[in-house]
Amino acid sequence: LPTPPSPYNATVLILGGGVSGVIAARTLHRLSPSTSFLIVEARHELGGRLQSTRFPSPSGEGEGYAVELGANWVHGTQTLGFEQVNPVWEMVKQWDVQTRVSDYYGSMTTYDHTGEAAYLPLLNDSLAAYAALVASAPLPGLQEPGSASARDGYDSLGYTPRTPHEQVAEYYTFDWEYADGPERTSWWASGVSTNATYEPTAGGFSRSNHFSIDPRGFSHFLKSEAGSFLDPTQVLLNSTVTAQGEETGVEVTLANGEVLRAEYAVCTFSLGVLQGGAVEWDAGLMPPRKKEAVEAMSMGVFTKIFLQFSQKFWFDTEFALYADPQERGRYAVWQSLDHPEFWPGSGVLFVTVTGDFARRVDAMPEEEVKAEVLDVLGKMYPNVTIPEPMAFHIPHWLSDPLFRGSYSNWPANFTREEHGILRAKTGGRGGKGRVRFAGEHTSERWFGFLHGAYYEGMSAAEEMVECIEGGSGCEEVRDFDLSDD
Ligand SMILES: Cc1cc2nc3c(=O)[nH]c(=O)nc-3n(C[C@H](O)[C@H](O)[C@H](O)COP(=O)(O)OP(=O)(O)OC[C@H]3O[C@@H](n4cnc5c(N)ncnc54)[C@H](O)[C@@H]3O)c2cc1C
């Protein structure tokens, strides 16, 4: 193994062992085998926002089900005749992760507070409006975003959902993707991320969404990838970073008081962690303009609430929508895994909440959330006595100090310049940037997605290698003037 130059623990510290961190490590390993690195991760395992918990099978037989608390889908795979392939999809195939295509629009049952209610055509209207919204946003990288919100975009297209049925249809096509409403999302950026993921003619991958049903958990692909090149001495688990500073290099203080030193670092902590203040920064590493940019991007909340019943009593489609008469997005999107394509006989059902409603749920006692969820099921099924679930689980991404939310979203008035500042290297005298920020949130095209985290981990490490090997990567490390205005 490459030996780090003394007095450093490694040449590069990779802070965080999610998709970005693991791919940054793999890129260093491939491009510069003589460069030493160390992944520093607070949790007991690699994977980051790829996490699952186990539900038993109702019969008590078999190994049960790996219920995905975080990322669950590969969004966009590859389209025949187009070169662009989602790199996460390539790893998923390479490591044989079991997935199924999710039929977002073709397998849906619709409900409201009176029970089943027929409003599927509204879903087609919302899909058509969304397609027009993203088609009229400029292509990735070509234009500066204005400050128009996706709501402005919908208004300009004459799409104005008013009734609870119309609103839940819009919620499903928009909020359920962005974890935030159209008012709080940039029209331009929602077009960029959609086109760059789903539209092959705009450099995207494909329109399909593959959902992991793998009993080893979706993280299997990343853990296997990591296992294929990492030596155990290159990973420090159970190690929480509390401060980052710079003296002769980067100094990282851990919760146990230990200090790690390196020439460079790639920091992949989530946007929520950067906003949350759990890590102390030297002013040179987090100058005021960077801090402002970090504050200005938003961290969305997307919470799946899982239930397991001993017997299925619900819809036979993959999805269902519930239109609440009072509140848009209240326990709106339901998904059945007890379905022939997924986990038949599993009794597993989940409902997803987003945005402010998810923030409220994150802070509530779980018993109260459960009572509300069962009450909604009672409205969807007025003739069924809703049984007590055998299992109930809510992940708390927002209150978890290692994440502080689910994934980032680009707000309407957030500029490309601010995003560049959020992403830019900082630290180091003489213009030699020591710390590069990477993660899904630093991706202009694919913020929020696993593939965004992948590409950012890769480009951060590529830049580091250029820097270390004395190439151009180090010359103008600050694309932006980060000094206080
Ligand atoms: C509920 C949910 C659903 C999602 N669904 C999808 C989906 O279906 N498809 C999709 O493409 N994307 C989805 N995403 C987004 C996707 O999970 C992320 O884009 C991606 O996993 C981010 O990877 P990352 O490496 O940037 O960050 P992370 O995975 O957050 O990695 C950062 C790592 O840093 C560690 N860390 C944080 N603070 C410290 C500290 N102080 N010290 C040491 N270590 C620390 C964390 O433990 C973590 O392991 C979802 C996310 C969530 C939460």
UniProtKB/TrEMBL annotation:
Transmembrane segments: none annotated. The keyword Signal applies. The keyword Ligase does not apply. Its EC number is 1.4.3.-. It holds the Pfam family Amino_oxidase. Keywords: FAD, Flavoprotein, Oxidoreductase, Signal. Gene3D superfamilies: 3.90.660.10, FAD/NAD(P)-binding domain. One of its GO terms (biological process) is polyamine catabolic process. Its cofactor is FAD. One of its GO terms (molecular function) is oxidoreductase activity. Residues 19-464 form the Amine oxidase domain. It comes from the Eukaryota. FAD binds at residues 20, 41-42, 241. Belongs to the flavin monoamine oxidase family. This is Amine oxidase. It comes from Heliocybe sulcata.
